[in-house]
Fold:
Amino acid sequence: MTLTVKEYNKIVDQWADGLFRFAMSMCKDEDVSKDAVQDAFVKLWERRDQVDPTKVKSYLFTTVNHKIIDGFRRDKKYEAIDETPINDATHQESHDLQEILHEALNTLPEIQRSVILLRDYEGYNYDEIADITGLTLSQVKVYIFRGRQKLKQYIGSIEAVL
Structure:
């Protein structure tokens, strides 16, 4: 089934903001985020007769995720899973919990940040995250577990933050 222009425009209206937030959470670069979202919608339009209408959201998030990760690899910013140092001093200066959470997310390797954002911010289940990222179900679970452990270690107890 091919998407009509009207259906496509409705999809753009429905998912553009969420895709942009997801991209910004991953790369913290507005221009890169806009490009990734635009590329996702261009690819959707080019493949409008191949994409299952019930899986449009997953297709879009997958495309944005791959675009951002590919950019990190190209820019050699991609980090191995357990090589990101934890910075305990940074969060002690801040009293804004949201800011602390964003700082903590920024300490994670891209793949961990990506799966945690998909799970906790976008509400995807483990199977959907595996489809989006191309990881196995067990890899998704491990990355989420390790990422949450690092977040917990970074943030520490809530009493220390406040």
In short: The helical segments are 5-27, 30-46, 56-74, 97-106, 110-121, 126-133, 137-155, 158-161. The chain has two domains: 1-78, 84-162. The longest helix spans residues 5-27.
